[in-house]
Design brief:
With 369 residues, the chain is an alpha/beta fold. It contains 14 helices and 13 strands. The strands form 2 sheets. The chain has a 7-stranded parallel beta sheet with strand order 3-2-1-4-5-6-7, sandwiched between helices. A 6-stranded parallel beta sheet has the order 10-9-8-11-12-13, sandwiched between helices.
Length: 369
């Protein structure tokens, strides 16, 4: 039999790209001869990260709808039409046995054209509240892999499979807590707070950190703080004027997230699907501060899925600058609560998500052949 051929489409953020690459790697482990082609959005993060992971990628000029300035969507519609034509050609030329959508701008036109060509499709919905694109694609999808219960409110029940979200496998290469802290130039035995706002950064989390520096310093807490590339220079300049600060590692991007997670007593994070999956799998106590700038406020819904099971704490974005540091200090002073959160969050993990999804993808491909 000829090698199976698979298109994986989506991206835009690390939260979409890391799971997509994890699925591709898991497919390769089971079917080493499988041919995998990624389809992403031009100018987005996947156009660099996917080749770095060893896979070919083609870009579409697709862009997201501007919900605040509707008049700007004329160009978006033109790009969508062009992207559909390009996606149709990619499907014709590559002749995939299955197409996988992981969310992000490119997955819409790519999977739609695959479905029109009679190619089986699998959707991976990462959030607890389904996005518009996946809801539209689900009508003709063969399988829908989800990370949360009760997703039959959005998708046909008979095609849903609860798999969880794949995470970066490198996160499992963890050192001891002491070694991890020392790798950031910090003290091995001092309580440690880790703050991550995504690869680009989160304005609210950065402002909350600046506002809380004196409190954290007075409490003797040390901090690992990812400012994000977008805010790195500004934060560096403003921190130079902060008179009292704790022992601190600050950088635009943390390359070794496995060490950062291992170092942490408590993590402050946005509530993107990928971040939450990592927190669950690694059993980390966290404060989730959902971004208000996402479709259907899905990050709040992701966060509440954990908060309702006492598996995480929650601070609203609007309250974070005033209350985030004090909330963190209250939790860091309550080891029993932290231990309970770690235990509860680990029960929500799906450690084999990538392998389970890969088997479904391969099953669809072989059934078509």
């Amino acid at each position: 039999m000829d090698p199976i051929k698979i298109i994986i489409s989506g991206g835009g953020t690390g939260g979409h790209i890391f799971p997509a690459v994890s699925i591709a790697n898991a497919i390769k482990e089971i079917e080493p001869n499988a041919e995998i082609l990624f389809v992403g959005a031009e100018g987005r993060m996947e156009m660099q990260r996917v080749p770095d992971a060893g896979y070919p990628i083609k870009g579409l000029p697709v862009a997201g709808f501007d919900r605040k300035h509707l008049w700007r969507n004329v160009s978006v519609l033109i790009k969508l039409f062009k992207s559909q034509q390009m996606a149709a050609k990619i499907v014709r030329d590559f002749k995939p046995d299955v197409a996988v959508g992981v969310g992000g701008y490119a997955s819409g036109p790519t999977l739609k054209m695959a479905q029109k060509a009679g190619v089986p499709t699998l959707i991976q919905e990462q959030n607890s509240y389904a996005g518009v694109t996946n809801k539209l694609l689900a009508k003709d999808a063969n399988k829908i892999c989800v990370a949360y219960d009760k997703m039959d409110r959005f998708f046909p029940k008979d095609r849903i499979m609860l798999t969880g979200n794949p995470i970066r496998q490198t996160l499992l290469n963890r050192t001891t807590q002491a070694e991890a802290r020392e790798s950031f130039g910090l003290d091995a035995s001092t309580p440690t707070l880790v703050v991550i706002g995504g690869s680009l950064g989160a304005r609210t989390l950065n402002e909350a950190m600046l506002a809380g520096m004196k409190q954290l310093a007075d409490a003797g807490i040390q901090v690992i703080w990812q400012t994000g590339s977008y805010y790195a220079k500004e934060m560096e300049t403003r921190m130079a004027n902060v008179p009292q600060k704790p022992r601190l590692y600050m950088g635009p991007f943390i390359k070794d997230m496995a060490a950062a997670y291992a170092a942490a007593d408590l993590v402050i994070s946005r509530a993107g699907a990928s971040s939450i999956s990592e927190i669950c799998l690694l059993g980390i106590a966290s404060i989730l501060v959902p971004s208000p700038n996402v479709a259907e406020d899905h990050q709040t819904k992701n966060a509440m899925a954990l908060v309702e099971k006492n598996a995480a704490a929650y601070v609203a974005d609007v309250d974070a600058i005033d209350t985030l540091a004090s909330t963190a200090l209250i939790l860091l002073d309550d080891e029993a609560h932290l231990t309970k959160m770690r235990s509860n969050v680990q029960k929500m993990a799906h450690p084999d998500a990538a392998a389970v999804i890969a088997k479904e993808v391969i099953g669809l491909a072989k059934a078509k052949k």
